[in-house]
């Protein structure tokens, strides 16, 4: 399994829903299943609270607050 790490600065705020979102191209992560983990203290990652919106060529991750995350694919 591969992963990409994102910092909380990569998120943008959706003014309509007040969620924080990040768009990832499927060229980067492929078309399979993904899992999102939030970085905790001391480089430990735990399952994050998130929603995924799967579009034709991108995946949008929505969270209630921005966080440093790891996207496993």
From TrEMBL:
It comes from the Bacteria. This is Uncharacterized protein.
């Amino acid at each position: 399994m591969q992963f990409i790490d994102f910092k909380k600065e990569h998120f943008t705020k959706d003014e309509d829903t007040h969620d924080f979102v990040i768009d990832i191209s499927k060229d980067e992560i492929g078309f399979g299943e993904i899992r999102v983990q939030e970085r905790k203290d001391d480089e430990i990652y735990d399952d994050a609270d998130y929603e995924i919106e799967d579009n034709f060529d991108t995946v949008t991750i929505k969270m209630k607050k921005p966080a440093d995350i790891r996207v496993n694919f």
